[in-house]
Design brief:
The complex is a heterodimer of chains A (about 350) and B (about 325). With about 350 residues, chain A is an all-alpha fold. Chain A has two domains: about 90 residues, no CATH class; about 210 residues, Orthogonal Bundle (MetI-like fold). Chain A has 13 helices and no strands. Chain B has about 325 residues and is mainly α. Chain B has two domains: about 60 residues, no CATH class; about 240 residues, MetI-like (MetI-like fold). A two-stranded antiparallel sheet of chain B has the order 1-2. Chain B is flat. Chains A and B meet through helix 3, helix 4, helix 5, helix 6 and helix 7 of A and helix 1, helix 2, helix 4, helix 5 and helix 6 of B.
């Protein structure tokens, strides 16, 4: 008598598009062949440099893929060509990204010296030698404006999300729609609006005005992210709270919001990352000042304007300073992102 | 003995909020409507400050391509119009979209269907990070790194394609041209178009993709017949979001496009500008009357981008609803 072994293990559903070892080998051969072709094209024609080589590779890869598979029929050949085209196109997209990061790092690190992060430009003209002056005033200004902007925009953004998800009021759809529309307001228009109101009424550029312009740009990001996070809160928690006789406000403030506190921090951080590099609205509202300043009613420096104004001078040292400022700004954005990512992965694990 | 009446229909549930809750709900509602107030205030104040311009020039403010303040003492000698800038906004944004969309489709497909699992999570974060690179950094990079490259490419394009009006120029000197600004904008808007496309493609029905495999189809067959048709409207919405971004971009265009008041369709010529960069450019030393014109220009830009975003949002939301 034969016995049948019945497997009790349910097989994992397999993603049909996952790669096998054969695929990797084939791709390796494909890329090598195309790379050689790109190099040949580079030496034979006027194309030059890495980009020229890449153009050669990009054209060669679909052709090589087609030639290598056409004997198996049209369907397979079109699949291979599509894979080649998609991969090549995506790799092309990353070239400018890498170039931006590398250029900012290379050129920006030249502007660094021991006091770069602690000095300001009070007694240093932009064209002065690199060893003098620094970006401290711009860092302080950016921090102050972003802090004030967050103090206003983060609560408002979270409350807008609470309205959509918790209260589900009559205007919920409208509010979501308006927040999305607001995220499309060009930053210069936000600056122009604050100029037409705050700057004109209070008679001058100020850190206040800059911060208010940033509020307009920050609010949609915070509201949108908070909304996504609020939706994660399980309905059971709310029901349980209501069942214990809690009011809606108590449920929201004592149960729902504390549950996703770290998610709300992520929303705030993403909002800050969105506005920390805004240049155009600050030209119209906060203007620029060369010394460290903490006065809210005076013009104030900021990293983006420091970059922008140094760049406009056309001098070599000034341009190096602009790159230095870019490196600091990019570093700030990078750190903010790392924070947001760490918090949100921790939240996801919960 | 007690009799139990079985109710024939469910009891009607009424909600009575306590006083605290009524205050809470009212407070949150008023905060939520803040964005509505801001949007209305923006339109109202820009119209209020720029009204004189619309009264003086009417429609010709949008159609004329001249920026001449004339005698600063006498506002009636001024001729102001943003026609060339509107054309410039559209030309650069269209170049950006035409370049960015194919690459965005490829990137979204690559991240969603071709990249290994680990790479996929990394790339999703990188995409968000690139979307947050400040525009001034894109601008300085475009000016220093991209400009010489595009000058080079422009030379080649002009050499072989100058018979085509788009690629013709009066004098073959290339520099900060609409092509450069458009290419830079395409790099800037690519992350947002890609992430919208990726999100939509990720929602494509798995059973249909599996069915396509079950019928012996290749991966490309599944993408072509299921994913791409499914994500079409979402992609259009994402592209329009990118269009809105591109039209409202200020600093990057300011740094990579020569501001010249001429309606310019020759994308290799170093002349052009867009409305946003006009405002940044003229703001510093503007006369009072000119400032009003800039407010009016800002209002036009605001309304145009609002309209583009409106349609984009409607399309994206509709494509979400299908799921």
């Amino acid at each position: 008598m034969t016995t049948f072994e019945v497997s009790t293990v349910v097989p994992e559903p397999r993603r049909p598009w996952d790669h096998s070892r054969g695929t990797l080998l084939r791709v390796g051969v494909l890329v090598t062949l195309s790379g050689i072709f790109g190099w040949l094209l580079n030496t034979l024609t006027g194309l030059s440099g890495f980009l020229g080589w890449y153009v050669g590779l990009a054209f060669a890869m679909p052709v090589v893929a087609f030639v290598g598979s056409v004997r198996h029929g049209w369907n397979l050949a079109s699949d291979r060509v599509a894979s080649a085209v998609i991969t090549v196109a995506f790799a092309a997209v990353t070239i400018p990204w890498v170039s931006i990061f590398v250029t900012v790092y290379q050129k920006g690190s030249k502007a660094f010296h021991s006091k770069y992060l602690t000095d300001d430009m009070r007694i240093t003209p932009s064209s002065d030698v690199i060893q003098n002056g620094g970006v401290a005033h711009a860092i302080i200004g950016t921090l102050m404006m972003v802090l004030i902007a967050s103090l206003i925009a983060v609560p408002l953004g979270i409350l807008a999300a609470v309205y959509i998800v918790e209260i589900k009021g009559r205007f919920a759809k409208l509010v979501r729609f308006l927040t999305q529309a607001m995220s499309g307001v060009p930053s210069i228009v936000a600056g122009l609006f604050i100029y037409a109101t705050v700057v004109v009424f209070f008679g001058g550029f100020s850190a206040w005005a800059g911060a208010l312009a940033l509020v307009i740009l920050m609010l949609p990001t915070v509201a949108r992210t908070s909304e996504e996070i609020l939706k994660i809160v399980p309905e059971d928690l709310r029901t349980a709270s209501y069942a214990l006789g809690a009011t809606q406000s108590r449920t929201t403030f004592r149960v729902v919001l504390p549950t996703i506190a770290s998610g709300l921090v992520t929303a705030a951080v993403l909002g800050i990352a969105r506005v920390v590099g805004e240049t155009a609205p600050l030209i119209l509202t906060a203007s620029y000042f060369v010394a460290k300043s903490t006065s809210l009613n005076e013009p104030i420096a900021s990293l983006p304007i420091y970059i922008f104004s140094s760049l406009g001078l056309g001098d070599e040292n000034a341009t190096t300073r602009a790159w230095g400022g870019s490196l600091v700004l990019l570093g700030v954005v990078f750190i903010l992102f790392a924070i947001a990512r760490t918090i949100s992965t921790r939240l996801a694990r919960k | 003995m007690q009799t139990l009446d079985t109710p024939t229909e469910p009891r009607e549930i009424e909600t009575h909020y306590t006083r605290v809750d009524r205050v809470f709900r009212g407070f949150v509602t008023s905060c939520a409507l803040f964005s509505l107030v801001v949007l209305i205030l923006i339109a109202a104040f820009l119209l209020y400050r720029g009204f004189e311009i619309f009264a003086d020039f009417g429609l010709s403010f949008i159609t004329t391509s001249k920026w001449d303040i004339g005698n600063p003492e006498d506002t009636s000698t001024a001729v102001l119009g943003i026609g060339a800038m509107l054309v410039g906004s559209v030309v650069t944004a269209v170049i950006a979209i035409l370049v960015a969309v194919p690459f965005a489709i490829a990137s979204a497909l690559f991240i969603e269907f071709y990249a290994p699992r680990l790479l996929r999570t990394i790339l999703t974060s990188v995409l968000d990070l690139v979307a947050a690179i400040p525009s001034v950094i894109f601008g300085i990079w475009g000016y220093v790194v991209l400009l010489p490259l595009v000058e080079d490419w422009s030379g080649t394009l002009y050499k072989y394609l100058s018979w085509f009006p788009l690629f013709d120029v009066q004098t073959p000197i290339f520099g900060r041209s609409p092509l450069l600004a458009g290419l830079l904008l395409s790099i800037m808007i690519l992350p947002i178009v890609t992430s919208v496309a990726r999100e939509v493609y990720g929602q494509a029905p798995r059973d249909l993709i599996d069915a396509s495999y079950a019928l012996g189809g290749t991966k490309w067959a599944g993408i072509r017949t299921v994913v791409l048709p499914f994500g079409k409207s979402g992609l259009v919405g994402g592209a329009m979001l990118g269009l809105g971004r591109a039209m409202g971009e200020t600093v990057a265009v300011y740094l990579t496009l020569n501001l010249v008041f001429k309606t310019n369709f020759q994308i290799l010529a170093s002349a052009g500008g867009n409305v946003a960069s006009l405002i940044a450019n003229k703001f510093g030393e503007a006369t009072d009357y000119e400032l009003k014109a800039l407010m009016a220009a800002g209002l036009v830009l605001f309304l145009v981008t609002l309209l583009v975003n409106f349609f984009a949002t409607v399309i994206v939301n509709r494509s979400r609803k299908i799921v």
